Amino acid sequence: MRSLVHGVYLKYIPKGSSILELNAGTGVDAVFLAEQGYKVNATDISEEMIDILKAKGKSEKAKIEAKTLSFDEISTIAENNFDAVVSNFGGLNCINDFSKLSNDLAAKLKPNGLFIAVVMNKICPWEIFYYIITLKFGEAFRRFKKQGIMAELNGEKVLTYYFTPGEFTAAFSRNFTKVKLFSLGLKTPPPYLLGIYNRLKPLVKLWMKLDKIFMGLPILNLMGDHFIIVMKKK
Fold this sequence. Notes:
Layout: H1 2-12, E1 18-22, H2 28-35, E2 39-44, H3 47-56, E3 64-68, E4 82-87, H4 99-108, E5 109-120, H5 125-133, H6 137-140, E6 149-153, E7 156-160, H7 165-171, E8 176-184, H8 194-199, H9 201-214, E9 226-233
Parallel strand pairs: 1-2, 1-4, 2-3, 4-5
Antiparallel strand pairs: 5-9, 6-7, 8-9
C-alpha cells in the first residue's frame, strides 16, 4: 500500500521540491522522499517518533529537517514556500476540525502548491464484509459514528474519526481544490487482517495488482480502507 502512495507522490510532486510532512512517524516516507531528491521538513507530535526519524535519516541529513510539532503548531514553522504538504496513513483521522489546519497549510504553501493526504475512509467494503460474516454486526458500520471510535494506534487507543472523500474535500474547500482522488485498499484487505494475508498470499497479491489498476477510476475511488487525495492551493 505504501508503494502506491509513493507512486502518487512521485507523479504529482516535481523532483527537487520542498515538502512539509505531517504525522511523519518513524520517517519511512521522509527517508524515501529524501532519497528521491526532495527536501523534507518532517513533523510529528511524538518526540519519540522524531528521535527515531532523525536516527534513520542520518544519511540524508542535509535533506531532512525533523521537528516535534502537533497539527496546531504548523503555523510556527518559519518557512512559507513549500511546494507540497503530505500526510500519510490516517494521521489526519485523529482530528475532526480542519479549519485552522487548512488555513495554516495554505499559508505554508507556494501558489498552486499541492496537499496530498492519505485518509482512512468511512466506506470500507472489506471491513463491512468481514464483520458481517463474523457476525459482529455492531462493528460493521463503526466508521460511520460521528463521535469517532477508539482505535488502536502503535499499541495505544486513540480517538479516530473517519471521512468520506467528499467530507474531507469540503473541510479544506476554502483553501484547496481537488485535483485527483485514488482509492487505497479497495480490493486488498485492511492491514490489521493479517490472517487473511498469511492464508491467501497469492490471492492477496492479485488483489493488490487490481487495486493499482482500479485505484483512480470514478466511483471505485470513493471506497477503500483509505483514500489518497491530491489537492491544489487556490
